[in-house]
Amino acid sequence: MVLVGVVNANSSIEIEEVGIDDIELDEITPRVLERGSFYDIDILLDVEEEIENTRIKMALDSDEEWYTLGDIYFDDLDEGMQNIENSFEIASYVEEGSYDFEIKIQDKYGTLAEQTYPVEIVAKDHDLYIEYIWLESYEILAGEELSAEVFIENYGENDEEDVEIEINVYALDISITDTIDEIEVGEE
User: Fold this and answer.
1) Of 54, 103, 116, 185, which residue is least crowded by CB atoms under 10 Å?
2) Which CATH number fits the domain 5-122, given the four candidates 3.90.79.10, 2.40.50.140, 2.60.40.770, 3.60.21.10?
3) How many CB atoms lie within 10 A of CB 107?
4) Bridge partner residues of 106 (DSSP)
């Protein structure tokens, strides 16, 4: 893994500190993050002069994969120390492994500052994700049967047993319940 810190020669901004869930990141120790989880991020910037139309880009990068984590937009970044607070999600489909957590600060002319930190993405022990729900009919009349298929992906580290699925239409007082005996890791 290569550590990169880039600052445009004309840049008037520096990334002073980055923290995820109140833990400061450093350039050596990988921070462990679970896929399928939300995290709070604090970015401390030293802005030497006001910058207009700025965005902060967050992404995960490795030799094989690249995932965007979101952008934060600003009309104006005022001069002085600025603490930017936001959140992001590591999606359930992100592959496990080592990544560079990239933070880029850009304006309309290009990248003003960039910093990367090592992170390790791991799977949760239990992480079921509803891919989609298919209803046989979108019109249900009183007395008719409700038929549905639920497509679930197991992104976790463990096989899941006796998974109970319940679908409710509260306005019509209709519900359906079923149990899936087993969903193996990586199985849909």
Assistant:
1) 185
2) 2.60.40.770
3) 17
4) 55, 111
Which of the pair, 9 or 47, is modelled with greater confidence? 47
Two tokens at 56?
Answer: 């902060």
What's the N-to-C CA distance of the chain in angstroms? 33
Q: Which residue has the tokens 């079921």?
A: 128
pLDDT at residue number 10 = 56
Residue 130 tokens read as: 């509803």
Burial-class residue 154 by CB neighbours within 10 Å (0-12, 13-18, 19+). buried
State the amino acid at position 115 in one-letter form: Q
* 3-class DSSP state of 170: helix
Residue 140 DSSP code = -
Does residue 27 have a pLDDT over 60? yes
Q: What is the token pair recorded at 163?
A: 């998974």
Beta-strand ranges (E) seen in 78-159 are 80-90, 97-107, 110-122, 128-135, 148-154
On the 0-12 / 13-18 / 19+ scale of CB atoms within 10 A, 73 is exposed
